Amino acid sequence: MARVDRSYIGKGPVYIKVKGEDGGLFPIGNCSNLDVSFDEESKSLKDYTSPGGGNANILTAISAFSGNLVMHDYSAENLALALRGDVAAVAAGAVTGEAHGTNGTDGEFIPFDFIRDSTAGLTIVLTNDSALAEGTDYSVENNGILVIGSGSIDATGIKVSYTKDVSEVMQALTSAGKEYEIVFNGLNEAQSGKFVSIRLHRVKFSPAQGLAFIGDDFGEMSTDFEVLSDNSIVGAGISKFMKVSQGL
Hints:
By secondary structure, the chain is mostly beta strands. Helix content is about 5%, strand content about 50%.
């Protein structure tokens, strides 16, 4: 029988959903890695009848089915996945009189509570409504201000009014690790783009070990996961862990 080339280079989107919840699968975004690996336990029986050693028998079993997913989209949903967080959407709108305590010291940074719309106006006054001037009392720095020590800002605090932009918020380490279902809807570039479908039925992620927020390279989130047995799947010859389908 002639040898059939089955070499593989996989590309394509990864989709995910919370296991057991209503709703469909949604894309994670750009992922550069999805791999799985296995740990094995073994017990061996030495051959005591022979002086040359060796084993008379061996029993092996899979002790762990794990994997790794590398994501490049820093969406709130992906950050929540990597950091066991919760996500909230923030609508655009006016923010009036947002209060902040200050020390009034030169160079003190005061961050705003929401992501501001940089194209809209910004008003800052003292707590007693006394006016403050940009360049004299403070300087605007991205999503906050820096106090100018020679100005009028002091320990009485300030009030800020601005327009908040559409944004999303992720609160880290606020939820227990959820279980997910993962589907890779890909193709094999080494086989003229033949379709590849991989389904991991029940997955639990570990928190990300590292997450770069400053750097010269594109950021990535590398998350390890464990593939668990899905007891809702029944039938002879049907895996409770993973299904791989490939076009021929």
